[in-house]
Specification:
mainly alpha
Length: about 130
């Protein structure tokens, strides 16, 4: 799969129309459509916006390696660890390493599934708005 195809795949994944995504990236709708078709090279400013504003993995965008939202998953893990440790500290819990891991896994599940539910809701709303 080429860069322009991954650009389209990511846009669809986040539930945006071409015009909505073009606006988010700061380009015209026509320019964006040309990027997706592969008719025009994608400028570095658009690549930087994708990586910075949407947490798109450069390795996935350019090479197709890994998951496009790997950075987002990393942030979820960090949030889960912080939440678990804060919870244990505020509750005065003296957890073993295994107990801490179990709590972190529970927190991760909460953050991860909340994120998935939120994305699905946004996609449904987007589809309802386009239909």
């Amino acid at each position: 799969m080429d860069l322009h195809n991954r650009l389209r795949e990511f846009r669809v994944r986040v539930g945006k129309s071409q015009l909505q995504f073009a606006k988010d990236l700061g380009v015209s709708g026509t320019a964006y459509k040309n990027y997706e078709r592969g008719a025009t090279p994608i400028p570095s400013t658009v690549v930087l916006a994708l990586c910075h504003d949407f947490d798109v993995s450069p390795a996935w965008l350019f090479l197709g390696d890994g998951d496009p939202t790997r950075e987002a998953a990393t942030q979820i893990v960090k949030s889960a660890v912080l939440a678990a440790r804060t919870f244990a500290e505020e509750c005065g819990l003296d957890l073993t390493a295994d107990q801490e891991v179990q709590l972190i896994c529970k927190m991760f599940d909460q953050f991860y599934f909340h994120e998935l539910k939120q994305k699905k809701l946004e996609q449904k709303e987007s589809l309802a708005g386009n239909g």
